[in-house]
Amino acid sequence: xxxxxxxxxxxxxxxxxxxxxxxxxxxxxxxxxxxxxxxxxxxxxxxxxxxxxxxxxxxxxxxxxxxxxxxxxxxxxxxxxxxxxxxxxxxxxxxxxxxxxxxxxxxxxxxxxxxxxxxxxxxxxxxxxxxxxxxxxxxxxxxxxxxxxxxxxxxxxxxxxxxxxxxxxxxxxxxxxxxxxxxxxxxxxxxxxxxxxxxxxxxxxxxxxxxxxxxxxxxxxxxxxxxxxxxxxxxxxxxxxxxxxxxxxxxxxxxxxxxxxxxxxxxxxxxxxxxxxxxxxxxxxxxxxxxxxxxxxxxxxxxxxxx
Length: 307
Ligand SMILES: [Zn+2]
Known about the structure:
A hairpin with a 5-residue loop joins strand 3 (66-69) and strand 4. The chain is an alpha+beta fold. Helix 2 crosses helix 3. The chain folds into two domains: 3-197, Endonuclease I-creI (Roll); 229-301, no CATH class. The protein is rod-shaped. 53% of the residues lie in helices and 12% in strands. The structure holds zinc ion.
């Protein structure tokens, strides 16, 4: 099951107060496939979503609503033109003569209803990408006016004086003749899902975020350790090369005794760290002392060119 349909299922299981139930139905119908005297309808791949829409149409007086399933498995719920269609529109404050359909704020009587309405809109035209893939939640809306009206609803949630504040700043873009209202950041998506009662889905977004952070940290650390390893391997290779040149010129005895001993040890133990080299010396030597002597060896070898 896609993350979108999981979210919708969770939203459909929310138990509404009567006022909110009305508001949710309003969002569901207004943002469906059509909402006019020519018919009120929704098309979807999900049967339970189609059934919930049918129920919403009936609850507003649309008794003649029809439910059908295509051979491809797509569901269409349609309230055809006629008396019932007029009745449903009128229950929501429309007479069908509107040149442009706008949002009727009178249907969102209480603050609680606003979240239910938004939930209805998501059920009708929303989708969300699985948070493991990317953070993206959108509403695909055919009318620009409705898209703009819908976006304004979120303003109230970003008000710092509000009882419960959310970060919900949707953006708008046009895509192939439809208007897309979308959220692109994980915080907005979490807040949106929490606001609309899809708590499990919100948790899944939070978990995905935690997991991504851990993965990024591990990668960053591994890269850092690899770079360090590269550096010490390169340094050891340079030292070994210098010592070879000194040996080739029989010049080892020209070095102080402990430095000469360290040079021989480095030739044998090319993978030892500075600390390990120091510990293997007799008597043992500090890391700083090892580092100092290896630098002297490199310096000393400069007089012996490659052959
Ligand atoms: Zn309410």
